[in-house]
Amino acid sequence: MDWEQVYFKYSDFIYRYILFHVRKKEVAEDLTQESFYRAFKHIHTFNHQASILTWLVKIARNVTYDYLRRKKLIHFFRLGKKDVVDDNAILPADQIVKNDRIVQLYEALSTLKTHYQAVIILRKINEHSIKETAYILGWTEAKVKSTMARAFAALKVEMLRRGKVMDEYNQEFEILRHVERSEVTRNASLVKIKLRHSKKRS
């Protein structure tokens, strides 16, 4: 396995997954590198039970949760508008509306149980399959299905409390994925640059 090729192929995805949880670019960069280091160190344990990406996400999840536990930040972050909209950027009206909707969705997600948040992130935002989600979380596929149903029902209730019908917010997951991917396009290259510099020094 060409490990450098694996890194350059999947580091953006892993960075985005971690950034979604920690919301700090520098921390996400460090945890991305830690995730790949841990994966490289334990590459002998990869048995092709899942795809290499799914295996990496499982490792990244463990690394991220270890960090959050150390920082006592295991609860889902609360996001303010300043975290979504760049104050220095002039956004068109429709983009501002989209960001307002995303903030409301984040706020609703932040009220859910941690395992509800985890399954929603993996299924609705990262778009993992039921089988992949089960592998990452260490659950059965039946548990993923039942937990996702309860999680989505709980999210729907939270949105209704905010005067929003959940069906309208299915599109918000797509908007959220687009925002997160745009963030990665701007920032994930920093992780790769660090790797190149590290290789040059070695």
Tell me what the structure shows:
The protein is mainly alpha-helical. The chain folds into 2 domains: 3-75 and 185-201, Rna Polymerase Sigma Factor, Chain: A (Orthogonal Bundle); 81-184, Arc Repressor Mutant, subunit A, CATH 1.10.10. It contains 10 helices and no strands. The chain has helices spanning 3-22, 25-41, 52-70, 81-84, 93-110, 114-125, 130-137, 141-161, 170-187, 189-201. Helix 1 crosses helix 2 (25-41) and helix 5 packs across helix 9. 27% of the residues are buried. Mean pLDDT is 77; it is low at 74-97, 185-191 and 196-202.
Total helical elements: 10
Oligomer: single chain
CATH class category of the largest domain: Mainly Alpha
Mean pLDDT, all residues: 77
- CATH-wise, what's the superfamily of the largest domain? Winged helix-like DNA-binding domain superfamily/Winged helix DNA-binding domain
CATH topology of the largest domain: Arc Repressor Mutant, subunit A
Beta-strand content bin: under 5%
What sort of overall outline do the alpha carbons produce when their principal axes are compared?
globular
CA-atom Rg in angstroms: 17 Å
Strand tally: 0
How many independent structural domains?
2
Structural class: mainly alpha
Q: What CATH architecture label of the largest domain applies?
A: Orthogonal Bundle
Which sheet architecture does the biggest sheet show? none
- Report the span from N to C terminus: 21 Å
Output the helix-strand order. Answer: HHHHHHHHHH
Low-confidence parts: 74-97, 185-191, 196-202
Percent of residues in helices comes to over 70%
